[in-house]
Write the C-alpha cells for this entry.
Amino acid sequence: MIEVKNLHKSFGEKKVLNGITLVIPDGVTYCIIGRSGCGKSVLIKNIVGLLEPDQGEVIIDGMNIHKLENEELLKIRERFGFVFQGSALFDSYTVYENVVMGLYERGIRDEKILSAEAQKALTAVGLLPKPEEVTKEEFDKEWKILKDKMPADLSGGMKKRVGVARALVGNPSYIFYDEPTTGLDPVTSEQVDNLIAELAKGLSVTSIIITHDLFSVFKIADFIAMIDDGNLVFNGTVDEFRMSNNPIVQEFLERYKTKVL
C-alpha cells in the first residue's frame, strides 16, 4: 500500500504540490489526472523517492521512503516497474537487452534466468505465444525472431508492449505508467488500455497511471485522483467522478464530451 500524507513540494517560489494526501491500496488501478503542469509527475517522483518533499511523508508498505538509507531505498525501488511515455527503449539494444536491462543492472548475469524472465514478460504482454498453446519448437522459433529485433523494427504498439514487458521483469508490486497512450492511434491506444487492464487483473499488481486521457481512465481505472494547481480536487471511484459537482471536474468532463461528439 502507498500512503501519501500532506505532501508539499516547491521549486523556488513556485508551489507545485500543496498538501496532497492519498492512499493507494494494493491491487488497484489508480489514475492520476489533471492538466499539464498541475503536479502529476512531481507527485510520482516524490512517491518513488526521486524528489524530496518539503513537507509530508510517503509510506510504502509501512516504510517512510524519505527516511531510508540509499541501499534500503534501492531495495524498495526493486518493487517498482516503470513504463515511460514514448516507451523509452534504447535504440542500440535488442528487444531482449531492453527487457532484461533492470535485472542486469541488479547484477544478474545468468543467461538462463535472464532469458526465462524475458520470455515470461514478453508472453504476458502478448508478444510471444503462451507456451502451453504451441509446441516448444514453435515457441523457440518465435522467441529467436523477437529477441534480436531492434526498436526500429517495431511498430508503436509493439514498442509500448516491450516497454511494459521491461517493467514487468522482476515481478514488481507497483507499476507506474507515464501517459501510456500518448502519441498512439486510437486502435493501438485501446490495445494498450486492454493490456494494462489484463495485467492488473492477471498479475494482481498495483497500477498507478499518469494521464489526461479520460477515454483510458473510464476503461481501466478503479479510482481517480485529480490534481489542479497542486491541490487534490477529487479522489474517488469512476462513478463518483462522473457524478461530481466539482466545477474543475465538470470542466474536464465537458472537454471529454466535446471530443467524443
